[in-house]
């Protein structure tokens, strides 16, 4: 699925290293590697979720002076499938409470807005792609323009090699994000290890298509309207035929309004000057989207 190209950029890499004392200092190694490439960096060694929050708040305050960061999280991550609710997946260290990716979104959203909706997030953790959970509904603007992360467990050496190649691709060769991710994938040592990327507009479309699928004209809308009429009648409320016949149109109209409201929360007018952040109904309504 491809939407219009996003305008993403960064002026420095903000490395949030949150590791156990016995861990290899992969965040510090990445900082040194990027320095050798001539890429400005800011390394923050975190010991708690509060340290992560404070670092992101400072980054918002520093946008006028230091400009736009790429936020790179170097830590351990939990498997979303091991959680009772996948939204509880987190990152951090065993000695301290982890930070749910959903909560991270509250702190990333102001930074993405301050960065002109061009923020790139890299989850250099096992299951770091769970960062997509930061895209909460109706609570804040989109927390990033795009995110890169692992969809699997990943070995320490694999992660280190993949991230070095990712930054060679983006910072030295100036390759597109999808090409840089493909280069990183080739550096992984285990064929079961996977890294991928997505953008906030693509995530938004996939989330909102789930809403639209309930009101899609045809069988889904008819079924939804029929279920609503049945509930009303089961509750002892009279539903005249003409009212029942009007319900599908009402559901469709209210569903469209709800989708537009959610989209505008993620991507307010300041963001919609870019084509990729404008709601194009064809992406919501098309049945064969996943074949794109």
Describe this protein's structure.
- By secondary structure, the chain is of the alpha/beta class.
- It has 2 domains: 12-199, 3-Layer(aba) Sandwich (Rossmann fold); 204-291, no CATH class.
- 45% of the residues lie in helices and 13% in strands.
- It contains 9 helices and 9 strands.
- It has helices spanning 26-37, 49-66, 101-114, 156-172, 177-186, 200-212, 219-234, 241-266, 281-285, and strands at 12-17, 41-45, 69-74, 76-77, 90-92, 99-100, 120-124, 146-150, 195-199.
- The strands form 2 sheets. The chain has a 6-stranded mixed β-sheet with strand order 2-1-3-7-8-9, with helices on both faces. A 3-stranded antiparallel β-sheet has the order 4-5-6.
- A hairpin with a 6-residue loop joins strand 5 and strand 6 (99-100).
- The longest helix has 26 residues, at 241-266.
- The protein is elongated and about 75 Å long.
- The termini are close together.
- The mean pLDDT is 91.
Distance between the termini: 5 Å
Largest sheet: 6 strands, mixed
Total number of distinct structural domains = 2
Low-confidence stretches: none
- Characterize the overall form: elongated
Count of extended strands: 9
């Amino acid at each position: 699925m491809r939407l219009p190209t996003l305008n993403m950029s960064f002026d420095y890499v903000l490395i949030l290293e949150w590791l156990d004392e016995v861990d290899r200092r992969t965040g510090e190694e990445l900082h040194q590697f990027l320095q050798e490439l001539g890429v400005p960096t800011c390394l923050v060694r975190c010991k708690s979720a509060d340290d992560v929050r404070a670092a992101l708040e400072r980054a918002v305050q520093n946008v006028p002076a230091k400009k736009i960061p790429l936020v790179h999280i170097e830590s351990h991550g939990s498997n979303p499938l091991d959680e009772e609710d996948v939204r509880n997946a987190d990152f951090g260290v065993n000695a301290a409470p982890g930070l749910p990716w959903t909560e991270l979104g509250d702190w990333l959203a102001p930074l993405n807005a301050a960065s002109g909706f061009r923020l790139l997030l890299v989850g250099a953790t096992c299951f770091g792609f769970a960062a997509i959970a930061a895209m909460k509904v109706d609570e804040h603007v989109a927390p990033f323009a795009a995110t890169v992360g692992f969809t699997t467990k990943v070995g320490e050496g694999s992660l280190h090699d993949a991230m070095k190649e990712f930054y060679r691709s983006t910072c030295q060769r100036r390759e597109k994000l999808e090409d840089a991710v493909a280069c990183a994938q080739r550096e992984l040592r285990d064929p079961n290890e996977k890294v991928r990327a997505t953008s906030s507009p693509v995530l938004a479309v996939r989330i909102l298509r789930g809403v639209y699928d309930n009101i899609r004209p045809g069988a889904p809308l008819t079924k939804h309207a029929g279920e609503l009429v049945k509930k009303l009648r089961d509750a002892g409320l009279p539903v005249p035929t003409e009212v029942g016949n009007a319900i599908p149109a009402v559901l469709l109209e209210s569903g469209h309004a709800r989708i537009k409201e959610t989209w505008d929360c993620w991507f307010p007018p300041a963001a919609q000057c870019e084509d990729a952040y404008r709601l194009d109904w064809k992406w919501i309504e098309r049945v064969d989207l996943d074949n794109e």
